[in-house]
Design goal:
With 261 residues, the chain is α/β, with parallel strands linked by helices. It has helices at residues 30-45, 87-97, 113-120, 147-151, 156-165, 171-176, 189-201, 205-218, 223-238, 241-251; strands at residues 6-11, 14-19, 51-56, 61-64, 102-106, 109-111, 123-127, 131-133, 169-170, 182-184.
Length: 261
């Protein structure tokens, strides 16, 4: 899929979704959000796709936050106050709910909505020159729509410091606080992403799909509820074609041939 703001390309078992607004530092607007959402849903339905990579065009920015425009009252936001639904929130929910593994390829600065997308993804690889932050307080706002995905990733005190000071994290700080999995130099960014894609693509798509489903369901349950859910799901997973193939391949000392069923 190609349009003027989002490019989606299948590359073997990887689908790469790229925000294509380098002159606007890949800022998020409705068209971008809807383009990424459509590309995610298409990749999720593609049986050849095992991993989805989200990134920005160029080396300056992954996503420089929301594309703020002055409303009729002069405020830095265009939104119907009578309608709480917002395209950014829907985008984060779509990424979070995706049944296939998602990797944020952080090629440059990621602030506001960019930070939210990173936290909504399963994994993240960051170039060492990039920074991540939530500078909304500098324009009199608070990053409301990105609070939910970021709260699930970052320690509370560091998160509050980011929110109320607007200070950006360096790549080393992002790694230290588990906001990203790996930091590389710019030249090694694609190699590290490719390494992760290959590792994931070699595993059972069914196990990953059901595992992601379980992890998202478990995180808001009490501990006893988590145990009951896990106990119920495990026998179901053992009945899948991939589980039977995995057991057979292990016993026969060969590589498994996954069907994704």
């Amino acid at each position: 899929m190609v349009d003027n703001v989002v490019h989606s390309q299948a590359r073997g078992h990887e689908t790469r979704i790229t925000i294509c607004r380098p002159d606007q530092r890949n800022a998020l607007n409705r068209d971008v959000a809807e383009g990424i959402t459509a590309a995610l849903l298409t990749a999720e339905a593609d049986p050849e796709c095992r991993v989805i990579v989200v990134t920005g065009e160029g080396v300056r920015a992954f996503c420089a936050g929301g594309d703020l425009k002055a409303g009729a009252d002069g405020g830095p936001f265009v939104q119907d106050p009578a309608d709480p639904d917002h395209f950014a929130g829907r985008l984060f929910e779509t990424i979070q709910a995706c049944r296939k593994p998602t990797i944020a390829r952080i090629n440059g600065v990621a602030v506001g909505a960019g930070a939210g997308m990173i936290c909504a993804c399963d994994l993240a690889v960051m170039a060492d020159h990039a920074k991540i932050g939530t500078p909304e307080v500098k324009v009199g706002l608070f990053p409301m729509t990105i609070v939910p995905p970021m709260m699930r990733v970052l320690p509370r005190r560091k998160l509050m410091e980011m929110f109320i000071t607007g200070v950006l994290l360096t790549a080393d700080e992002a790694l230290r606080y588990d906001l990203v999995n790996y930091v590389t130099d710019s030249a090694g960014l694609d190699d590290k992403v490719a390494e992760l894609v290959a590792r994931i693509a070699a595993q059972s798509p069914t196990a990953i799909r059901l595992g992601k489903y379980a992890c998202h369901a478990l995180q808001d349950m009490t501990y006893p509820q988590q145990m009951r859910f896990a106990e119920t799901l495990l026998p179901r997973m053992a009945q899948t074609e991939d589980a039977r193939e995995g057991f057979a391949a292990f016993n026969e000392k060969r590589d498994p041939e996954w069907t994704g069923r």
